[in-house]
């Protein structure tokens, strides 16, 4: 006898085993996960967070939930000069993963950092780079996953290269898989796999659907994020003449569904100077203001950044070609902005309402760069007038600014954080450290 | 919380959790997993709670979050996963016919790719319009129609193999 689909679905769901997660437990767990929402949220959540801390919770299968403070310290004014060396920070330890951090065997090529990324549970993905002839046109890489310090590396399946002069750069996605980027101007080439490099989903698009006018009709991809099941990317949509005295590019945000990447979706914002995506928010600057939009609701707001007198937003001409990584970043509830001041630069962190969390000053003269905001941890590099470069991490949950190392040479890899883990490079090579708690 | 307090959120969880769990169950075929998926989705709702205006908007956002969490989890575990062997569904104290129906539907839905399965569940169980499904999945209405048609074709073929009979849909094209 023919059956009706809706009727079958209703019968199939008409009886259910008891719900294991009580509503009040979900609220408490959500409050704990809420990463220090500040301002108006903070007071309301404090009771819930404290209650969760007092009675504990056990309603989720996912681990790695470190205890969270009730609120982020606010109105801090810090200077890199006062940063505490990592070796002196109680509760911060450097971990030995037992795998080489730098490829030094590349002939005339500069050394390359091999610690690609660390996730919130301490897994390290390593990119082992080789070059058969010391030429950038014949680079290749194999990949390994190290579960933690002292654990044996496990092979990660390497994606097939699109171009022999490019190698895939892996990073962890928030859901435990890997995202792979391969710089290829003018097209979107992105790959999502599980942590073993298997079950790839290729996210590629020729970007012919991107609006705007650029030389040759090419729309270089500036940055890519994987967020809430979609791939978001900023792409150059306009630029002024190459001969202009002040070069300028405008970038717009687009997204695609990984399972149907041929369909581009234009998002807010359009024609910004720089865009960042994180924690369900997109933030951007057009050179005069900073704005944020909730990616799920489309609700847009202007963020009143508390800039110092005589200082301003980064000059858009400095942001051309993504030359200033992290001029603006977000983790969904905080924004970091590079503030240009005479003789120095500042890193201003606020919540989405513009309330100051911290204002970090560079050495004078000196500047800050390679800025990344991941959860509680803000990482960046600071150049001093003597030519040395230091990677820093600011634990925004405690307000502690840590100097991770120092080098006279340009860093061979990025400083980045995930959960309570940090990767950085200095004169001795690459390191992974962890904040306790 | 800025606009509505944690008590209101808990009330929202109480009222929306059972329905969301049924939707998640149809998409994943496991009541226990469905509970976890809904919990994760409601945590996402909490993050956006101060900015969600009214119950309807909160429910729409929660449904979107559930679908996203389930599809993400499926993708993470395997892009080609057929979860029939992993079902640990005890199903509750129902009669034999109902239990057989549930197992039959779970086996058939497991043959349908996750995104197409979501279209079927949202269209034929949650009774959403094509435009509402498009909004939940973040895809075009045309894609919803094509994914639904393909999913339905696969589901009906699986049903025919299992039962030698037809699976019909009523009212929604």
Short synopsis of the structure:
With 437 residues, chain A is mainly beta.
Question: What do these coordinates show?
Answer:
The complex is a heterodimer of chains A (437) and B (173). Chain A is mainly β. Chain A has one domain: Methylamine Dehydrogenase, Chain H, CATH 2.130.10. Helices cover 8% and strands 40% of the residues of chain A. In chain A, helix 2 packs across helix 3. The longest helix of chain A has 16 residues. With 173 residues, chain B is mainly alpha-helical. Classes of the chains: A mainly beta (437), B mainly alpha (173). Chains A and B meet through strand 1, helix 1, helix 2, helix 3 and strand 18 of A and helix 1, helix 2, helix 3, helix 4 and helix 5 of B. Strand 1 of chain A pairs parallel with strand 1 of chain B.
- Describe the main β-sheet of chain B briefly: none
Oligomer type:
heterodimer
From the 3D coordinates, which CATH architecture of chain A would you assign? 7 Propeller
Coarse structural class of chain B = mainly alpha
């Amino acid at each position: 006898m023919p059956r009706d689909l809706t009727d079958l679905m209703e019968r199939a769901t008409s009886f259910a085993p008891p719900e294991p997660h009580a509503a009040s437990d979900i609220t408490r767990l959500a409050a704990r996960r809420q990463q220090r929402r500040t301002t108006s949220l903070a007071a309301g959540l404090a009771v819930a967070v404290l209650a969760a801390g007092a009675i504990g919770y056990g309603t989720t299968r996912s681990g790695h939930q470190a205890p969270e403070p009730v609120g982020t310290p606010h109105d801090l004014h810090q200077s890199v000069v006062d940063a505490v060396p990592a070796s002196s920070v109680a509760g911060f330890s450097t971990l030995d993963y037992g795998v080489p951090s730098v490829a030094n065997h590349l002939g005339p090529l500069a050394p390359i950092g091999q610690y690609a990324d660390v996730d919130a549970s301490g897994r390290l993905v390593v990119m082992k780079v080789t070059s058969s002839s010391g030429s950038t046109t014949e680079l290749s890489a194999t990949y390994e996953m190290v579960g933690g310090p002292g654990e044996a590396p496990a092979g990660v399946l390497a994606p097939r290269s699109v171009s022999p002069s490019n190698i895939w750069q892996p990073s962890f996605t928030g859901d435990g898989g890997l995202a792979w980027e391969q710089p290829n101007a003018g097209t979107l080439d992105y790959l999502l796999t599980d942590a073993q490099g298997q079950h790839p989903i290729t996210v590629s698009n020729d970007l012919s659907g991107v609006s705007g006018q650029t030389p040759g009709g090419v729309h270089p991809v500036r940055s890519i994020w994987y967020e809430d099941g979609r791939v978001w990317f900023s792409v150059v949509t306009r630029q002024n003449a190459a001969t202009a005295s002040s070069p300028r590019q405008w970038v717009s945000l687009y997204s695609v569904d990984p399972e149907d990447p041929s369909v581009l979706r234009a998002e807010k914002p359009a024609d910004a100077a720089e865009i960042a995506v994180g924690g369900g928010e997109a933030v951007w600057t057009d050179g005069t203001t900073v704005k944020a939009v909730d990616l799920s609701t489309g609700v847009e707001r202007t963020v009143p950044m508390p800039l110092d007198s005589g200082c301003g937003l980064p000059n858009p001409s400095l942001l051309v070609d993504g030359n200033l990584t992290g001029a603006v970043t977000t983790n969904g509830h905080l924004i970091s902005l590079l503030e240009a001041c005479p003789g120095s630069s500042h890193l201003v962190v606020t919540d989405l309402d513009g309330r100051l969390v911290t204002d970090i000053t560079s050495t004078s003269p000196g500047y800050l760069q390679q800025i990344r905001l991941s959860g509680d941890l803000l990482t960046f590099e600071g150049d001093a007038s003597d030519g040395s470069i230091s990677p820093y991490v600011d634990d925004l949950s405690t307000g502690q600014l840590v100097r991770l190392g120092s080098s006279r040479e340009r860093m061979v890899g990025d400083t980045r954080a995930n959960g309570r883990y940090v990767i950085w490079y200095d004169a001795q090579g690459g390191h992974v450290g962890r904040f306790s708690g | 919380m800025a606009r509505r307090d944690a008590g209101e959120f808990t009330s929202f969880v109480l009222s929306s959790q059972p329905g969301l769990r049924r939707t998640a169950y149809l998409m994943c075929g496991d009541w226990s997993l469905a509970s976890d998926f809904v919990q994760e989705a409601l945590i996402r709702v909490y993050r956006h709670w101060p900015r969600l205006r009214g119950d309807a908007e909160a429910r729409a956002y929660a449904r979107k979050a559930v679908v996203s969490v389930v599809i993400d989890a499926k993708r993470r575990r395997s892009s080609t996963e057929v979860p029939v062997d992993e079902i640990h569904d005890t199903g509750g104290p129902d009669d034999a016919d109902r239990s057989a129906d549930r197992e039959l539907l779970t086996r058939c839905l497991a043959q349908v790719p996750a995104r197409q399965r979501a279209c079927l569940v949202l269209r034929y169980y949650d009774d959403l319009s094509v435009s509402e499904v498009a909004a939940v999945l973040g895809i075009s209405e045309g894609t919803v129609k094509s994914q639904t048609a393909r999913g339905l074709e696969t589901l009906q073929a699986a049903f025919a193999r299992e039962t030698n009979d037809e699976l019909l849909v009523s009212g929604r094209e």
